Amino acid sequence: MTTSGASTSDRTRGRARSPWSAGRRWFTIILVSVTALIGGPALAQASFINTANAVATVGTYEIPASASLSTSVDCTKRANERTMTITITGFARVDKATSYTLTLSESGTNSAPTTMHLTATQTTATIRQTTTPSASGRFTLNLTARVGTWVSNTSLTQTLTCP
Predict the structure, then answer these.
(1) What is the pTM of this model?
(2) Residue 110: helix, strand or coil by DSSP?
(3) Using CA atoms in the order 31, 33, 34, 39, what is the torsion angle rounded to 10 degrees?
């Protein structure tokens, strides 16, 4: 029984495909997929090949010494020792300094210098060294600025005498 005048076999005949056309379709899909896998990265790489030149600016910074150092000195001498106590009441901060190092030593002695580390904002401190009275009595105080791990090549130096 037909409703439109065409048989069922006539309607399906227009849609029927040969076995070769299905194979061609899969071949085409596989070929396009392989081409995308192989050619895709090359196309993506091509968009990143453009180069640009950047200007690198390099400079140097020589860490200066502090411009001033205010101290008060107290020297005590006993029968078998001499003690130099220096109170730092202020000093000029160095631009970019992240810390400072104070060193107190006595000339002509084999004793190790006394060292103290100060923060970037700390401007007062007390440093002390005790030695034998047979030493010279001339003490040297050095204030050195630091920027990170770099240390200034120059220090603010004061020479003090303790009789």
Answers:
(1) 0.62
(2) coil
(3) 110
